[in-house]
């Protein structure tokens, strides 16, 4: 073989190995951020679901209390729902940032 052919083969091999190494390195680097993002997203979603379930539970308890006591607790129920909504929203916004 000629020297220029060996040089060309070695040049192509070096480029291929370099591109493979860089591609693997960048993929691992991006995957780390993606895993962290997915973990934080899952935590935020689970907190949101828990908050909504708690909100529904509190609403149901207030409604049942009003039914069983025979008193009109609608204003109290509306105030509880409003305050709970404000606190849940503030809590989710705090956890988001």
Describe the structure.
With 97 residues, the protein is mainly alpha-helical. It has one domain. The protein contains two helices and no strands. It is rod-shaped.
Break the fold down into its secondary structure elements and pairings:
Elements: H1 3-69, H2 74-96
**Approximate strand percentage:** under 5%
Q: Uncertain runs with pLDDT below 50, 5 residues or more? A: none
The secondary-structure element order is HH
- Helix count, DSSP H or I runs of 4 or more residues: 2
Query: Which value, in Å, is the CA radius of gyration?
Result: 30 Å
Structural category is mainly alpha
Q: Largest sheet, described in full?
A: none
Mean pLDDT across the residues is 77
Tally of structural domains:
1
Q: What's a concise summary of this model?
A:
The chain is an all-alpha fold and 97 residues long.
Search tags:
about 0% strand, mainly alpha, about 100 residues, single chain
